[in-house]
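Supplementary notes (optional reading)

For those who missed the lab, this is the record we used. Protein: Endoribonuclease YbeY. Length: 159 residues.
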Amino acid sequence: MPTLVNDIQQTLPVDEAQLDLLISVLDFGLESHGKPQAEVSVILADNPYIHELNLQYRGVDRPTDVLSFAIAETVAEDQPPQMPEDAPELLGDIFISVEKAKEQAAEYGHSFERELCYLAVHGLLHLLGFDHQTPEETVRMRENEEAILRQHDLGRKPL
């Protein structure tokens, strides 16, 4: 099971169908980027929890919608963990504010499911090495996000 989800917030209910969709989208994202056996962990949080993470790790004193923490960035190169040869590659953790997902879905005029999955895919692509620091990187990341979401009928609707 490449994607593990832990819902630690109690502000907004996320039902089983929404969780199944989230897992399916992320598993497709892993497969489509050549990492079908890799694992990611998704933590569904509330605004206060993600606010603390954002402050602690990015120095930004407000809640955000999604944060990704790549395991490769936290492991010392000279001391890699000893893992069995057949162990899956562990990519990292994706924290999503369910409150922000709900707010942004309303703001952008699309479903909560689309926003939740978009944030998860955005986080996943960061774990896979994508970024959006330059216009070129942003275009590449957005194209990959939409390609994954379209496979689950969650792509952007034309204006």
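If you only remember one thing from this example: The chain is about 50% helix and 15% strand.
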